[in-house]
């Protein structure tokens, strides 16, 4: 086990749409010292109980007691950084006082961030965007999440709704989105959206078909990449960040994802020096981000 670079240790909790992760993290170094993971139940009550159990498992075996708890949550979070607005993928999280629940059950001061915001900060401090004063982060996976860092701080907006890049409306008569709208970037270019358009079981099957030069899969893939490029350009032309960092399962396709995306973005973006970078923190991005938004850290 690695040694923490500072005295401070944080309990980090990552509530995803399909997975739960808890970790003990050194936020100064971005080092994940221990983890416990499990599937995310489809209901909030069961999901909270499962996460609480993961956290308690870590606390029992921790050699140093954590001083705070930070949460990365897969859905909109209120500006107070204590209340969940909703989850896009798990039922029952509406207006849940999640920080207070954790403080009651685990006796640690707690703060929450949207998962896109937390990941953006993690990549800016310890990942692909290290050294950049500003960046946009996108995760292209089950959904399309986003986060914005400006002047080395998360830009949340007045009511903490900034950074929802996946919910730009690009095609008003397009497919329905989990947010209740139509034609959002998420509904056009997320992993499930790509798989549905190709009539395949998952996006990995689509990637394999593209690599085998299947014409139908290739057309679907190219269309999704084009929508994603438009969404990135819209955000970049508005904010002019140092770079755009992309993570999530769809980006694991590698060159067949990044090469055409860079070409399509360069053809439209006003800033010719904008860099598109693969995320560097992998499966730990949510835990590192959660630790960075904990009380007394952020």
Query: What is the helical fraction, as a range of percent?
Result: 25-40%
Question: How many strands, what sense, and barrel or not for the largest sheet?
Answer: 5 strands, mixed
Poorly predicted runs? 1-6
Shape type: globular
Order of adjacent strands in the largest pleated sheet: 3-2-1-4-5
Number of helices: 9
Radius of gyration: 19 Å
CATH architecture of the largest domain: 2-Layer Sandwich
Report the structural category: alpha/beta
Q: Tell me the name of the CATH class of the largest domain.
A: Alpha Beta
Overall number of structural domains: 2
Average pLDDT taken over every residue: 95
Beta-strand content estimate? 15-25%
Name the CATH homologous superfamily of the largest domain: ATPase, nucleotide binding domain
CATH fold annotation of the largest domain: Nucleotidyltransferase, domain 5
- Tell me the distance between the termini: 25 Å
How many β strands by DSSP?
10
Order of helices and strands: EEEHEHEHEEEHHHHEHEH
Structure description:
The strands form 2 sheets. Strands 3-2-1-4-5 form a 5-stranded mixed beta sheet, with helices on both faces. Strands 8-7-6-9-10 form a 5-stranded mixed beta sheet, sandwiched between helices. Helix content is 36%, strand content 19%. It is α/β, with parallel strands linked by helices. The protein is globular, with a radius of gyration of 19 Å. The chain has 2 domains: 10-117 and 283-292, Nucleotidyltransferase, domain 5; 132-279, Nucleotidyltransferase, domain 5, CATH 3.30.420.40. β6 and β7 (144-150) form a beta hairpin.
């Amino acid at each position: 086990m690695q040694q923490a670079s500072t005295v401070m240790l944080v309990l980090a909790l990552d509530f995803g749409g399909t997975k739960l992760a808890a970790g003990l993290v050194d936020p100064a170094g971005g080092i994940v010292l221990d983890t416990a993971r499990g599937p995310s139940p489809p209901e909030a009550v069961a999901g909270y109980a499962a996460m609480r159990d993961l956290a308690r498992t870590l606390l029992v075996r921790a050699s140093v007691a954590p001083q705070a708890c930070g949460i990365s949550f897969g859905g909109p979070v209120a500006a107070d950084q204590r209340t969940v607005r909703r989850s896009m993928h798990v039922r029952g999280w509406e207006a849940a006082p999640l920080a207070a629940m954790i403080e009651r059950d685990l006796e640690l001061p707690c703060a929450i961030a949207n998962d896109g915001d937390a990941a953006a900060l993690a990549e800016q401090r310890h990942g692909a965007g290290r050294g950049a004063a500003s960046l946009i982060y996108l995760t292209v996976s089950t959904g399309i999440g986003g986060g914005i860092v400006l002047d080395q701080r998360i830009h949340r907006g007045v009511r903490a709704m900034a950074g929802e890049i996946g919910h730009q409306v690009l095609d008003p008569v397009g497919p329905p989105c989990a947010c209740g709208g139509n034609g959002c970037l998420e509904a056009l270019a997320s992993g499930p959206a790509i798989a549905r358009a190709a009539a395949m079981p998952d996006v990995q099957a689509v990637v394999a078909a593209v690599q085998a030069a299947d014409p139908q899969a290739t057309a679907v893939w190219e269309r999704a990449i084009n929508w994603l490029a438009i969404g990135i350009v819209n955000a970049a032309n508005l904010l002019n960040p140092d770079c755009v960092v992309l993570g999530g399962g769809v980006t694991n396709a590698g060159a067949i994802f990044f090469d055409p995306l860079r070409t399509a973005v360069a053809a439209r973006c006003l800033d010719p020096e904008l860099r598109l970078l693969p995320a560097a923190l992998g499966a730990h991005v949510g835990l590192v981000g959660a630790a960075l938004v904990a009380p007394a850290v952020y």
